[in-house]
Amino acid sequence: MSWMKVTLAEICKSISDGDHQPPPKASKGIPFVTIANITNTNQFDFSDTMFVPYEYYEALDEKRRAQIGDILYSVVGSFGIPVLIKSEKKFVFQRHIAILRPDDNRVIPEFLYYTMLSRKFYMKADAVALGAAQRTVSLTSLRGLEIDLPDLDTQKKIVSILRPYDELIDNNQKQIALLEEFIQRLYKEWFIDFNYSGSKRPGIVNGLPEGWSRKSIVGNDIFKFVKSKVLPFEGEKQYFATADVVGTTFVSDGETITYLNRPSRAAVQPIVDSVWFARMSNTYKIINCFGKNEHLANDSVISSGFAGFTSEKEYYGFVFATITSQRFNDEKNRYATGATQVSLTNEGLKNIEVIIPTKEIIKKF
After folding, report:
1. Residues 65 and 208 placed together within one structural domain of the fold
2. What single string gives the DSSP state of each residue in 202-250?
3. Which residues contact 287 (CB under 8 A, 6 or more apart)?
4. Which residues touch 91 (CB under 8 Å, ≥6 apart)?
5. Which of 92, 107, 202, 206 has a C-alpha 20 to 30 A away from that of 347?
6. Using CA atoms, how far apart are residues 214 and 218, in angstroms rounded to an integer?
């Protein structure tokens, strides 16, 4: 079994990206996906997309129209997320996503996908990414990235081993998604529709059940904003960037760092029994540091691109459901500001109001 180092340009028929012109919008037609439509199982979610006219799709260069076996790869902002195309569904995508068309005489598409999914490959992309607020992997840099490539028979064997695990992960993530969907349905039923469990319903006062209130998410006795910073430390820690999280799931093992090569202003220290969300606009990423993730708080730091809240344990479920709700995500995007990188500042966070039910109802929830 012999392996060789090759660049992506050597094993791909083409490496391009999405159209650079703003696509024309339509009420129906061909779905237009962005990085935000990539799920935590590295697939596209087409349930909530814009559309472009069919004629626009047909006019695109053939290398920009995804086909089975292609790999799409995010290259701007939340860079480093690959998606293997497994169906003939027609769609278009933004220029923040690259499209690689593997040469199947050199590389099996699934093998290349698993390689690009690895932490080792992500670190190579991270090394060539340019920019501060909006880091970008250029197509030139992407084409020049090297991978270790065995012969086709070995590639097939490796894929046959990895594929069942990938399918198992996919099935587990679908189960998790169903549970998260159930939590959000329950949250909406109780705290938006006010159809909650209770032996006696109070009257409505100022649009809320009696005893409930609307308050800034910062500065109340249920949601406790985590103002955290990283102090100098000895040895090593695992650093997790926003790109290491998809949805509510870690998709990599993070980066091993020391204090010297990661300034404290670039990271924060998560604490036990807290929930963190990405500050960037239109980015749904959640880190759950409750209970089972206690080791995360002790051994790791996370990007300052996350903001966190903690609470008393008996209220944590409500806090988690609120922060992971679509309503909160919409409010985050509403108050996000910035030019090159639109994100939620601490001042913007103070403008977000959340519903605070009675503590009795929160405990029941």
Report:
1. no
2. PPEETTEETT-EEEESSSSSS-EEE---PPP-SS-EEEE-GGGEEBTEE
3. 240, 245, 248, 250, 270, 275, 276, 277, 293, 296, 302, 306, 308
4. 30, 31, 32, 33, 44, 46, 49, 66
5. 206
6. 12
Considering the domain architecture, whether residues 217 and 304 belong to the same structural domain is answered as yes
Q: Model-level pTM?
A: 0.62
DSSP state of 336: -
User: In the block, which residue shows the tokens 């959640």?
Assistant: 286
What local confidence, expressed as pLDDT, does residue 214 receive? 93
* Number of compact structural domains in the chain: 2
Residues 205 and 144 reside in one and the same domain: no
52, HSE (Cβ side, Cα atoms, 13 Å): 20
Q: Which domain holds residue 22?
A: 4-151
What is the DSSP code string of 148-193?
Answer: EE--HHHHHHHHHHHHHHHHHHHHHHHHHHHHHHHHHHHHHHHHTS
Q: What is the pLDDT of residues 322-362, one digit of tens each?
A: 999 989 999 999 999 987 778 999 999 999 999 999 999 99
CA distances from 3 to 71, 145, 155, 157, 238 (A): 22, 16, 10, 14, 30
| 332 close to 309: Cβ distance less than 8 angstroms | no
Run of H or E including 83:
strand 82-84
CB atoms within 10 A of CB 261: 8
